[in-house]
């Protein structure tokens, strides 16, 4: 089997792995790159494969950094089967069209600026129509269900405990009358989730592709996360400010609602009269999907639903669906709690709430999830003094907090515990979905504690995995950003134009000296053409 790492290699976002077994081509995830303009450029890069040749796509969960480019894949010719859990399928039904709408809206805003500047217009990565079209290829299955795709590949999805319907992929591969097993961890959940079971333990695997998001971090004080949130809310309300919580629409918002429900139901609660706004149409729809898929939640949460106590409902909880309702929050006279997406603050209504609260000393911004490098949320957490939102410079004076206990990712100990669950040690672990520092430390720990060979793949690298348990790097491909490629091609175009002009002069002048120069210029022109080809491969 040839395994190519096309995303989440030495970075966290853009998860995508291409598996080639004989004539069968299977993708694991096809996520969006997130975190600033450099990541955005990667989303527009040319594919290294023909989408029409892909037979299967197995999706580990619905988060956009794992699912977000599926409409683009379909737009470019994919017509295979997309296999995932039924809950993930339901979430993608709302998340992908929402992502398409965001792509269209942001492109419309960009094109207005480009038009005023006399520049050519650009197209969105995909549209909401493209997203809707991609949904017809989805097939939902349950956990622990063996599914034989063909004579060479059998798969099974296990609970990853990360978000509703998230999964670990087990894949058995037959080649040359021999068989091996490779496991893709997906995103492994934290053991501190109030809603989900712990990640499933996998007892055997020959090879593992494993996330390492928090490979160098521990989630401290996770048992006191609700108390931390309560203290921040009470202090902020006393100062007559707002509590703004940038939150992923799926899972994190529901976790926060669960905790607020528990806090508000306490007999001595001081939170009862504080309004809570969930200002994200996507989060509102996702919460309904959680309610419909309660059997994917842990036993305690299922029991709450069965007793008639919906953990996502309580007095003074207000879901704002329309833009007018969202804007009205800015005129709310009472101090309030605002939960809004996106979790990394790069899109969605959260940007409006940050614009109206970041400058206020009495308000608090509470981060409850991972912030990718170069994202707006990461810059705020890292202590930048000013940010630009909708073209306006905002001076940050609000209180900035980060509560690690709400993270949906396993911390370093959680990741190590998952590896310890293997009764038969894997031959090799490939570390993905992590930043450089996290991967380096986690790699060292795996070697020291388990004596398992591990490797950090590069973007575009292909590994050949054999049934005799060997693995070798067979190809490396360097990915340049879309903008960098465009700049390089423009530069090469100028070089070619100059060479063509010199070539025409040499032809006009004639003579032996000019003939020698002619051959030289033809060679230079050929080299320039080769450079162009290399840029677009």
The CATH topology assignment of the largest domain is Metallo-beta-lactamase, Chain A
Widest sheet: strand ordering: 6-5-4-3-2-1-22-23
The tally of domains stands at 3
Count, helices: 16
| SS class | alpha/beta
Task: Please give the radius of gyration in angstroms.
Answer: 26 Å
Q: Which percent band covers the strand fraction?
A: 15-25%
User: How far do the termini sit from each other?
Assistant: 23 Å
Tell me how many strands there are.
23
Sheet bearing the most strands, described? 8 strands, mixed
Low-confidence stretches: 478-486, 533-537
Overall mean confidence score, pLDDT: 90
CATH architecture of the largest domain: 4-Layer Sandwich
- The CATH class of the largest domain turns out to be Alpha Beta
CATH homologous superfamily (4th level) name of the largest domain: Ribonuclease Z/Hydroxyacylglutathione hydrolase-like
Helix content: 25-40%
Task: Tell the overall outline.
Answer: globular
């Amino acid at each position: 089997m040839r395994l190519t790492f096309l995303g989440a290699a030495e970075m966290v976002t853009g998860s995508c792995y291409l598996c080639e077994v004989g004539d069968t081509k299977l993708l694991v995830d096809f996520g969006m790159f997130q975190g600033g303009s450099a990541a955005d450029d990667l989303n527009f890069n040319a594919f290294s494969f023909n989408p029409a040749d892909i037979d299967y796509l197995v999706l580990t969960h619905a988060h956009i950094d794992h699912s977000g480019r599926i409409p683009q894949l379909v737009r470019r010719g994919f017509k295979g089967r997309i296999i995932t859990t039924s809950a993930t399928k339901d979430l993608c039904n709302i998340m992908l069209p929402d992502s398409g709408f965001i792509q269209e809206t942001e492109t419309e805003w960009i094109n207005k600026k480009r038009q005023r500047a006399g520049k050519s217009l650009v197209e969105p990565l995909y549209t909401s129509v493209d997203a809707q079209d991609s949904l017809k290829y989805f097939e939902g299955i349950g956990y622990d269900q063996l599914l034989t795709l063909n004579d060479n590949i059998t798969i099974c999805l296990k609970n990853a405990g990360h978000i509703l319907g998230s999964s670990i992929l087990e894949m058995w591969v037959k080649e040359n009358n021999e068989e091996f097993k490779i496991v893709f961890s997906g995103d492994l959940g934290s053991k501190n989730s109030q809603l989900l079971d712990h990640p499933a333990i996998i007892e055997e695997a020959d090879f593992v592709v494993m996330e390492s998001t928090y490979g160098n971090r521990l989630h401290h004080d996770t048992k006191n996360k609700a108390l931390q949130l309560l203290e921040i809310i009470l202090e902020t309300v006393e100062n007559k400010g707002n509590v703004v919580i940038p939150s992923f629409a799926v899972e994190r918002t529901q976790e926060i609602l669960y905790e607020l429900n528990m806090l508000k139901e306490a007999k001595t609660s001081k939170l009862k009269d504080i309004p809570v706004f969930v200002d994200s149409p996507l989060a509102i729809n996702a919460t309904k999907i959680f309610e419909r898929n309660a059997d994917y939640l842990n036993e305690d949460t299922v029991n709450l639903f069965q007793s008639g106590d919906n953990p996502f409902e309580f007095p003074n909880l207000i879901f704002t669906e329309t833009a007018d309702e969202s804007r009205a929050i800015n005129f709310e006279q009472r101090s309030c709690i605002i939960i809004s997406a996106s979790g990394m603050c790069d899109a969605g209504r959260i940007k409006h709430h940050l614009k109206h609260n970041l400058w206020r000393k009495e308000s608090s911004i509470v981060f409850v999830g991972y912030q990718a490098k170069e994202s707006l949320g990461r810059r705020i957490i890292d202590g930048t003094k000013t940010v630009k939102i909708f073209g306006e410079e905002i001076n940050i004076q609000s209180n900035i907090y980060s509560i690690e206990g709400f993270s949906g990712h396993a911390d370093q100990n959680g990741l190590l515990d998952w590896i310890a669950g293997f009764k038969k040690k894997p031959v090799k672990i490939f570390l993905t979905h992590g930043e450089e520092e996290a991967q380096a430390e986690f790699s060292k720990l795996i070697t020291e504690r388990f004596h398992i060979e591990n490797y950090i793949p590069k973007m575009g690298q292909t590994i050949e995995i054999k049934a005799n348990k060997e693995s070798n790097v067979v190809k490396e491909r360097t990915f340049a950003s879309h903008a960098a490629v465009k700049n390089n091609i423009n530069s090469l175009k100028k070089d070619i134009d100059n060479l063509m002009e010199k070539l025409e002069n040499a032809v006009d002048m004639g003579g032996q000296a000019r003939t020698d120069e002619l051959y030289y210029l033809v060679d230079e022109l050929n080299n320039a053409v080769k450079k162009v080809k290399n840029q677009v491969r």
